[in-house]
Amino acid sequence: MGDCLILGDYTYSSWSLRGWLLMERFGLPFSVQNITFLHGPVATQVARIAPARTVPALVTDDGTVIWDSLAMAEELASRHPEAGHWPSDAAARATARSMAAEMHSSYGALREQCPMNLQAAYTGFTPSEETLADLARIEALWAFARGRFGDGGPWLFGRYSAADAFFAPVAARIAGYGLPVGAAAAGYVAEHLADPAFRRWRAMGIARGEHLPWYDRPHDKGEWPGPAPRPARAVETGTPENAACPYSGEPVTDLLEMDGRVFGFCNPFCRDMTMADPTSWPAFTALL
What we know:
alpha+beta; 3 domains; Thioredoxin-like_sf; Glutathione S-transferase; maleylacetoacetate isomerase activity; Glutathione_S-Trfase_N
């Protein structure tokens, strides 16, 4: 059966992003089922996998339901020790777990004032004093972890860990609202924005195109601050270079053109998520 991850919308669901990164970023096989916040209460939509009532929720191959992202991190680390969710050094591991737990339960002002919206980059936004206090605490934690355990690597503990997955939505908020942070924190945020897994997640949100208006904020918008994707467009006709979809292996039905070359996919979503950020998808870049 395999592990199945139930997720909310890619653009807005910060909790889902964490759960997905805990699987995707550590090379674990899994399938996905999406729900939409437009279709009523989440608890109703996931009632079949009780006692889960939120997303993300993971149903493992033995039928176990894990309905909390922090529990997911710990259980995945237990079941897949080779994946390396936590640092191997004991002091670093304890620090990473403490930081993930604090992120999981704190920063209410930042969450309330700056909900994650990966399709918006606001300009002229003024954070509250409470949000600034949250940012100061976050910067202090990031500086502590990187200074003591970073070993010169780009992530909090040098190599990517579950702690980085937990802070990915924070990085998205800092980028999306142009929040004031120092150069070191801004560099760490940029690592998240450039991370191919993060870019794939954002690309899937663009492809799904779901708009939840209650996440909108009345501020001017600018360009998303992450790496600019290579231009690509959907086309109706052409001879694709590939006969099978690079993701599913199924026959191609939908076409994309990039740099004068045509490639095929098995459905519009596969095409559109690729079109949103072509070089973030290893299976597609292999065709190039």
